[in-house]
Predict the structure.
Amino acid sequence: MNELRTILGDVVTRLFTDLVTKELLESSETAWPDALWRAVEENGLTLPLLPEAKGGAGGSWGDAFVVARAAGRHAVPLPIVETIVGSWLLSGAGLDVPSGPLTIAPVHRDERLRLTRAGGGWRLSGSAARVPWGRAAEHVVVVTEGEGSTMVTLAARGAAEVTQDQNLAREPRDTLAFESAPVIAAAPAGRGVPARAVWLYGALVRSAQMAGGLDYLLRQASQYATERRQFGKPIGSFQVIQQNLAVLAGHTAAAGTAAANAFRAADRGDAAFEIAVAKVRVGEAAGIGAQIAHQVHGAIGFTYEHALQFATRRLWSWRAEFGGEGDWAAELGRSVAERGADALWPQLTAR
Amino acid sequence: MSMQTFRFELGELPPAAEALRAEVRAFLRAELGDASPVRRAHSWGGFDREFSKKMGARGWIAMTWPKRYGGHERSALERYVVLEEMLAAGAPVSAHWIADRQSGPLLLRFGTEAQRQKFLPAIARGELSFAIGMSEPDSGSDLASLRTRAERVPGGYRVNGTKVWTSNAHLADYMIATLRTSHDPAKKHEGLTQFLVDTKLPGITMSPIIDLAGSHHFNMVVFEDAFVPEDMRVGEEGAGWKQVTTELAFERSGPERYLSSFALLLELIREVSKDPGERAAATVGRLVAHLATLRQMSLSVALMLEAGENPNLEAAVVKDVGTTFEQEVPEVVHALLGIEPTIDSGSDLQQVLGFLMQRAPSFSLRGGTREILRGIIARGLGLR
């Protein structure tokens, strides 16, 4: 681990441990936790990829992974990862990055917004459903086709009509409708940024958050199993519980590895293969992990009172956002089939 | 009791290791060019002394050992590359592989100078094949309950008892046998000692144990007053348990713990490539996602070993997750295609499916059962 990553790791862990309390998680289900956002922004956690000259940390996707995984581990109720992706897209297109929370759109594979020239500027049209933190973000970063090239557009959220919705964890997932709305800026996307960058990098950051969520489940469930006593001893002393937690440990380890590998690939360039691998593998781990963690916790884990649900409700939603496992597995399978069986091993070992 | 941290840091293979990969691939193309998929599916079960000697001549056995013992003083990561290429290609490595992986490193650590001089160079040349004599009829997972006795007699030990599941003992030159040298029931871990046993010794009778598919690789090895000379003892009397657990750590961390069904995945992809529907594509994609992740996990363990760390816990995790994957592949192929598995008829895919379906139950038994491994992981989690 390099120095920046170590520092980032320490900062996020301290900050989230102090501020992302159970009370905060509860209250943020109905209200935007503004003080927490300001603390996160002041600590430079939202712009790890931006050059230092632009107020960022001058870091890599590998550094961003540290932040995203920790955000998942603590169930941080903020669009940190959306801001990381959005600011990276803006910066790559040579656009200025505004302060405040960003979101990214559209988030569904076949959803497109339209960018058209109007006089000296651009106008944005179309509707994007289930945009994360739509109502809370101050700006929206949209990737779309415009005049034959992939364009990155920055729009004020106020330019859109917002219809509120939410995911299972009551994180905002709002529809943003733009009707020939003026935009703040638009420019061709940075080199190597694909037209579906929001879909792709959205899947990337959700993988990291889920890997973090699984870290929490493993720690929490192992801890609970040593404390909870039945039949005169800790339930963790029963082999059946031990075996289930070992399975959870395996999925957690696989999830962390797959997600980290995808972020490393993002630093190298075309990461579509590794991102697909991560979304499939981590998403599967999330489902199994949530099931085991709940089983170990028994009835108390099924209550709102117990904090376990802040993690599991997020995992159940996150695994479906930016494409579920089936979606990404089919894409991965098609690309593997296209290259042919004999290309698989050389491909795996070349990356 | 406290929870250890599982560390799966990503790492890079050094350029020297990657350069070696191309060389190994060219060798394998030449050696295995026309090997059938079902032969490749035997993976590390294939036993071929000529192949092993060619590996030895290339310097691909004993790669990390000191040159004075016939080794090549290359990095563990170069060895890892050779190994994963061999396994992915389904090369018949088992004539040298047990000695390369376990018996040689055991002798390097605990053997006498004379033992090292005598055995290691021959292993490195691919000329000496080893078997592992651990399990007994009444001792499987409970290894400390071993009963085969080695009693001190003038000049050595007299051995009586029975070993089972001894893979390829009928083909191997030597066996590393873990035997009981003292009988205090309160200290059963302390009464074990390891020996180098010549498989042709008088007093040793071997009989095949035929596996469920009708194949002979297991053996029952009966010792009746077999005399093992004193200088064939490995390590101190009573140090066997510690040595065995070290040996098992070598046995758990490699790519052989997730690649056993790779040949079937390749045949599945060949079949699906003809006309990949959504369901078939998703099935292949999911398996590839598991495989790609396991390779990174396995590589991560190799890098920790190279860095001199002790990744026992991580190795147990890789083996547990890896064997679960290996066992899932035939099930997934069956669920997707519903073709009948065959023995020696039908398509390559059917034959590979038939072979691996019958081989798969062993994946989570050999080298420590799934339950034992999960117990090790649970200890790491602070549960026991």
Q: What stands out?
A: Residues 1-78 of chain A form a domain with the Butyryl-Coa Dehydrogenase, subunit A; domain 1 fold (CATH 1.10.540.10). The mean pLDDT of chain A is 96. The longest strand of chain A covers residues 121-132.
